[in-house]
């Protein structure tokens, strides 16, 4: 089955991820090592069929940025073969030497770990949504520079690895400076193209680093993490935005302070109150973007679709960083909101599938979807503009036509 033609997929160019090698030499090693997903199965079941080819929507070639067509968001897991890709400098040549991970920093001797050392710790598997903080940036007006994601800078995968807390345990327990350690800093192997460009150097507050769902992961949807997605080793930070999910993790550093530099100190900041940002923002009005906000997407029918009259299933996904999804409601045109049916697994930090039975009458229609989470937060009519275009979560709208064709 070949899903998604460009006409239904926003305005980006589309591409087949199987052809990536030809696009960018810097990614070649990544593809050679990580490969393209074939069959993946895990605790939550099979994630794709053998012959499925899905085209990603290309948002940038070098470095590679590409989004998943939202029409594919009808399965619990997003297959590795068409999971969105976001990188600042492109995938490093990770396959050339055996991987080694260093844990160092305040009050501790550096410790180097191999993948085999990682595998000796208890393995944890959990489903979680990975969403770029800038997903939906393309909806903001006025236009914001940066990757112009529409819907698909997001996916839900099954991640396996070891708890970061377990890895740090020994070096924290025996640490004479334990009380001083307030942050854990991370550095990936993807170095910027020139020395003046800041590296993607980031940190987590110690409480979030020690949260039992924060993983140093080696597997994605039942296979080694593909190089494009940070393999062999990446950080998993369920319920928090993608910029925390460091790929190709090389160095973990116990520290007094946050990571210095652009990507922690300047980038990835939002107004403290995103719903009512002050007219003129001072640096002290900005906080790091962390938790995902409540959001739903309509997967099918797609924008601009032409469908036959009669019974139709409207389907999609919904997630939040704060609790669980409580309800998803759907409105057809100006009719009242009605509850959709929540389906599939319900796991904190992962997304929820939903569907809504609609008896489609001929004509042009506007379908809207709105999710509410257990904290009481609901999708707004519009997400207030913010400088970097983060956390777009406005009520989802799809326009379509019903007619006998
Ligand atoms: N080392 C490193 N880690 C990184 C990035 C990066 O450029 N370099 N990009 C981050 C951002 S902004 C996002 S949204 C996610 C995207 O992960 P994916 O490409 O697997 O979808 O990775 C994060 N981790
Ligand atoms: Mo991102």
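-> sequence recovered:
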């Amino acid at each position: 089955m070949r899903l998604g033609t460009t006409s239904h997929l926003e305005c980006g160019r589309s591409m087949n991820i199987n052809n990536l090698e030809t696009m960018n030499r810097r990614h070649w090693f990544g593809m050679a090592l990580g490969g393209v997903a074939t069959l993946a199965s895990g605790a939550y079941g099979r994630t794709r069929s053998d012959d499925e080819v899905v085209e990603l929507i290309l948002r940038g070639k070098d470095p590679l940025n590409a989004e998943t067509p939202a029409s594919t968001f009808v399965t619990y897991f997003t297959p590795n073969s068409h999971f969105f890709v976001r990188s600042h400098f492109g995938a490093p040549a990770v396959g050339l030497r055996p991987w080694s991970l260093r844990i160092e920093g305040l009050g501790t001797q550096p410790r180097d770990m191999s993948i085999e050392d990682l595998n000796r710790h208890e393995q944890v598997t959990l489903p979680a949504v990975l969403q770029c903080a800038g997903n939906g940036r393309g909806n903001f007006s006025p236009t914001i520079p940066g990757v112009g994601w529409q819907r698909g800078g997001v996916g839900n995968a099954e991640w396996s690895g070891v708890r970061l807390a377990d890895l740090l345990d020994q070096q924290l327990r025996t640490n004479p400076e334990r009380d001083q350690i307030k942050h854990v800093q991370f550095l990936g192997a993807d170095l910027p193209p020139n020395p003046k460009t800041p590296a993607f150097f980031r940190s987590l507050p110690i409480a979030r680093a020690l949260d039992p769902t924060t993983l140093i992961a080696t597997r994605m949807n039942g296979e080694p993490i593909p190089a494009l997605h940070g393999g062999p080793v990446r950080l998993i930070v369920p319920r928090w935005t993608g910029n925390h999910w460091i790929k190709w993790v090389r160095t973990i550093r116990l520290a007094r302070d946050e990571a210095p530099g652009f990507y922690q100190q300047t980038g990835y900041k939002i107004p403290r109150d995103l719903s009512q940002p002050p007219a003129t923002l001072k640096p002290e009005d900005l906080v790091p973007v962390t938790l995902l906000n409540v959001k739903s997407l309509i997967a099918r029918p797609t924008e601009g679709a032409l469908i036959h009259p009669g019974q139709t299933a409207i389907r999609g996904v919904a997630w939040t960083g704060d609790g669980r999804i409580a309800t998803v409601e759907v409105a057809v045109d100006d009719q009242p909101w009605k509850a959709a049916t929540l389906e599939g697994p319900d796991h904190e930090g992962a997304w929820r599938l939903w569907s809504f039975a609609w008896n489609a009458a001929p004509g042009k229609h506007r379908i809207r979807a709105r999710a509410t989470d257990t904290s009481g937060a609901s999708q707004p009519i519009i997400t207030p503009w913010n400088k970097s275009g983060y956390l777009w979560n406005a009520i989802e709208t799809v326009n379509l036509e019903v007619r006998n064709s």
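DSSP finds five helices and 28 strands in the chain.
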